[in-house]
Each structure stands twice: as C-alpha cells, then as structure tokens.
C-alpha cells in the first residue's frame, strides 16, 4: 500500500494509527501517524549527482535530437548566465541575468536567425522575471517589482519601483511575473526552504496585484516553487509547473503541472504527489495530515522527479514562416533545467505538454541530447523560453551562456 492515495484508503489506515509506504514510494519503512501522539519514522535513499559541464561545441549541438522538421541552432552566446526571456511584437529579445543584475536587448537585424546586436538596457540587482504588458516592461527581483517604458528603439526608460517588500529569498530566489487575461499582475514567490512551515504567508505562493503594484494578495498557496506558468489560450485557465520536494528519493517528489485557482492550496510542505504524506515537517498543533489532504488540490499531471521545470509558454503561432505544426497550437512548451538530487540525471531538455480538451494529458520530448558522455556530462541546462514573431522558439542555457533557437520547416 502507499502511504496515502485516496481518503477511502486513508480511513482504514487511520484506525491503525500510522501509514506504511510500499516499494513504489521512495519513502519506505515509514510510520507516519495522523497526530504527533505517536512517533514518525521514515527512511529515504537520497542521492546527489551533477553531470560535469562541457562546452557547447558545434559538434555537440549538431547531435541534439528533435522531432522531424525541427532544427535548433545558436541564436546568441557568450551571455554569462542568461535566465528569463521575453520578446516584443517587433522581435526585440530581452534576457535577464540574475547573477549580473542586467537586462540585455538582443536583435536579429538581418533575419538570419542569429542575434547581431546586443545592448544592456537595465541594471537591477537580482533581476530575474520579466514580461511586457500594455507597452511597458515589467521586471522583478527578489524583493521588488519595477516597470519601465519601452522606447521606440527597444531600449528601456529608467525602471520605476512599483512594489517592494516581497519575502526574503532563501532557497528559491527566482521570482517570475506575468499578466493574465484579466489584466492583473501575477507573481511567483518560491519557498525559502526544501520543506518547512514558512513564517511569511507570502512564501510558497502565487500573488496577484493591480498593474500599478497596488492591491497585492495571495492568489494560491502551498506551491513550493512555481517558476513557469501561463494561461491556456482557449480556456483562459492558469497552469503552473511546481518543483517537487528534494530528499524523498530518486523518483519522488515528481514535478507537478497544476491548475492554479484563486484561493486554492496545493499541499506543500505536508502533502505531495497524488496524496502522499511528507514525513517532515509534521502538521502543526492538532491538525492532522488527513485534514490537510482534504483541502489540498492535487496535480493535474506529474513529470519526472527532480527535472526542475523553469519556464512554460503556450504555443499560439500559426502561419508565420517558422510556425510549428498545427497540432502544437495551444499546447504548452517547457524547459527542464535538470536534476542534482538523483542518481541518474533527469531533465536537461525542452518538452511539450499536450493539452486535450483544455487539459494536460502527457509530456513529450522536444529537444534532448544535452546530457552526453554516457550521462556523465552536460552542455546545456534550459531555463528561459519565449516565442518569436516568426513562429520560432528561443530558450536560454545558463551554464554555457547560450540562447538557442528552435525553428520548423515544412
């Protein structure tokens, strides 16, 4: 039996006073009682493995694997540690570097699929997420949100702080920002820890605010670290990719695709996966795991544990020169930066999340092959993701300082 799957199973186990996991779960030999009136015990086989970093040579890039008709090539390189991307309607590419505290503008002026102009257009300590809304650039650092005018030449005016006082970073400092179909600003705030009772209620949440930064409130909580998120083009529903808890073994906790709803709670740090109990931390006071599970929204879809999802965009391009095949329209594309808390690497790829009837149903590979030398080395950890006006797709690698371009030719 699992440590808990459904309330119907749970009720029979409560009478015994504890839950026992089986070989399917990485947490094993576990006794996880509903209350602290009995001891909690669990064993976990935790692993650390990070492939060595090697150069992104032409030969290595040539062996990357994509579906038929797709190609991938460098759009720009020598960028340090590029992270998140956004693209204007005119094709101006903006990329952040949290390490350098910069926003860089890149242009492909001769339309050959490669950047030929580069210019730093903003300097903000710890800047990470960025987006364009109503003709303005919005940028987020650990504690603050800024807006800036976009000049006719693509450069930015002086960023103006419109929000401050976001929670301290801790383990997850990479804030992201986006605007929904409702015109509100959405902000992701990761947890400060792997699994803990957060003292700040805004940690491990998605926040919502007005475009001018006022009216900030918690929109959804119990989300360990949801960096990539977006709205389905047809249903207008918000989906996010949440990072699973570390140190639960090679295959737990799986990464999550969550349907994010106003006021919903997603289980962290007490409930994970399809209803499993996390041995530590325990619920506080007289609260039981069962009570927390009853109010938890479980994931819509799960993916390989520790793959580290970073960005997610819904693909909508059609008719442009490099547009993907029609069946990609309204599917989500996502970057998986790659594992470290696992004996064999997971992630290190770009994937396609298939949606049917407006719901996620499976995940397929789009770009693979960054892990080389019999899984002992890697030359790319995908992070940022953005679609170009010509239908191509850009993604960043923050290890070798490259932005790649995926294009399709019929």
UniProtKB/TrEMBL annotation:
Coiled coil ranges: none
Organism: Spirosoma fluviale
Protein's UniProt name: Glucose/arabinose dehydrogenase, beta-propeller fold
Gene3D superfamilies (UniProt xref): TolB, C-terminal domain
InterPro entries: 6-blade_b-propeller_TolB-like (IPR011042), Beta-prop_PDH (IPR054539), Quinoprot_gluc/sorb_DH_b-prop (IPR011041)
Pfam families in UniProt: TrAA12
All copies of domain Pyrroloquinoline quinone-dependent pyranose dehydrogenase beta-propeller, residue ranges: 66-407
């Amino acid at each position: 039996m699992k440590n808990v799957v459904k309330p119907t199973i749970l009720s029979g186990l409560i009478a015994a006073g504890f839950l026992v996991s089986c070989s399917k779960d990485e947490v094993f030999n576990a006794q996880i009682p509903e209350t602290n009136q009995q001891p909690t015990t669990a064993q976990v086989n935790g692993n650390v493995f990070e492939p060595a970093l090697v150069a992104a040579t032409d030969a290595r890039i040539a062996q990357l694997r994509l579906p038929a008709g797709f190609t991938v090539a460098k759009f720009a390189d020598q960028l340090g540690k590029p992270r998140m991307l956004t693209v204007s309607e005119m094709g101006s590419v903006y990329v952040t570097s949290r390490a350098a505290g910069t926003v860089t503008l890149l242009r492909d002026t001769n339309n050959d699929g490669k950047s030929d102009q580069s210019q730093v257009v903003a300097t903000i300590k710890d800047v990470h997420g960025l987006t364009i809304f109503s003709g303005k650039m919005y940028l987020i650092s650990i504690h603050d949100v800024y807006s800036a005018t976009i000049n006719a030449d693509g450069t930015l005016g002086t960023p103006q702080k419109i929000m401050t006082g976001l929670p301290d970073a801790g383990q997850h400092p990479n804030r992201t920002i986006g605007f929904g179909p409702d015109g509100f600003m959405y902000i992701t705030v990761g947890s400060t820890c792997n699994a803990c009772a957060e003292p700040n209620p805004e940690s491990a949440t998605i926040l919502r605010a007005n475009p001018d930064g006022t009216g900030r409130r918690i929109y959804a909580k119990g989300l360990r670290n949801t960096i990539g998120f977006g709205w389905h083009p047809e249903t207008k529903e918000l989906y996010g990719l949440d990072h699973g808890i570390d140190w639960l073994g090679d295959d737990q906790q799986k990464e999550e695709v969550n349907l994010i709803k106003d006021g919903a709670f997603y289980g962290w740090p007490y409930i994970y996966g399809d209803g499993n109990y996390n041995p530590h931390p325990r619920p506080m006071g007289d609260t039981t795991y069962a009570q927390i599970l009853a109010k938890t929204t479980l994931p819509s879809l799960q993916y390989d544990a520790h793959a580290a999802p970073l960005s997610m965009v819904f693909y909508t391009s059609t008719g442009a020169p490099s547009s993907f095949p029609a069946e990609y329209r309204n599917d989500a594309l996502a970057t998986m930066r790659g594992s470290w808390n696992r004996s064999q690497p997971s992630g290190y790829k770009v994937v396609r999340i298939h949606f049917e009837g407006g719901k996620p149903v499976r995940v397929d590979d789009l770009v693979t092959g960054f892990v080389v030398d019999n899984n002992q080395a890697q030359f790319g950890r995908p992070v940022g993701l953005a679609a170009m006006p010509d239908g191509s797709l850009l993604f960043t690698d923050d290890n070798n300082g490259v932005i790649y371009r995926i294009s399709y030719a019929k």
